[in-house]
Amino acid sequence: MGGKERGDVFERFRESFNKMEGHFHILEQRVPVELQMEYFKYSGRMRRNNILMTEENFNTYKQNLSDSEATTDTKRHALSALAVSNEVRAYRVLEEYIQHPEPSVTNWAYMALMESRISLESELSEEKQIYISTGLGGKGEKLRFYALFLASENKCFELYQRKVIEREFVYYLTKENCEIERLIIKDVYVELLFLISVHIDLKAVLDNMVTECNQYGNFLSGVFTITNVKELSAEEITEIIEKKYGGNKTGN
Q1: pLDDT digit string (tens) for 37-71?
Q2: What gap in Å lies between CA 94 and CA 65, rounded to an integer?
Q3: What whole-number distance in Å separates Cα of residue 68 and Cα of residue 158?
Q4: What's the DSSP call for residue 228?
Q5: Phi then psi for 146, rounded to 5 degrees?
Q6: How confident is the model over 95-132, as pLDDT tens digits?
Q7: Nearest CA-CA partner of 117 in 23, 19, 16, 30
Q8: Dist CA 165 CA 210 (whole Å)
Q9: Could you tell me which residues come within 8 angstroms of residue 40 by beta carbon, excluding any fewer than 6 positions away?
């Protein structure tokens, strides 16, 4: 992504949140985007069917969740039915279930609990409820991002450059109240996993970090990769490096 195009995307991203008025709900868990979309489609169908939460249905759904023999589809249906019921007792069941969920429906349960919480708060509060979810999740009003920075000309980082990267990255992110979850410096690239407020100018923070590092030798590429969908695999990183430099690593 080019510099101006990337800047425009980040600016629109930040402005969209700053214009929103209401209470943010950020899904903290890492739930694959594909599964999130599947959940919302399923949930939407259930809402349109408008099934009443009778005492019998409620007890059946509770039993299905505790039944180790129940199928994944049965448990998914129970979780979604409880989520769309807009009932406090259903929320409590989901809240309890998420403490020890079946592995096959763990992510589905996270989605159901979030939907139930938002539905209840919408009824109890006059404030608009805004749901935000990404593949990497978040915490509070912060979203989790993964960023990949490449060495200029694919040259291996020297020891002093590694120290500069660690110092400047920590300084700029901490100053903006960001949380660094992982900072890994490899031979020719840097991986960063961090949490940042939805209201902060993400591009400016990362650009400043790179610019400051490059005051000590211009050793970081000014074009970096950032995503909140998933972390890049080793194979994907290699592909990015080969696309940019042809896979030729230069020694110090």
Answers
A1: 999 999 999 988 877 889 999 999 999 999 989 99
A2: 9
A3: 55
A4: S
A5: -115, 130
A6: 999 999 999 999 999 999 989 988 888 777 666 666 77
A7: 23
A8: 8
A9: none
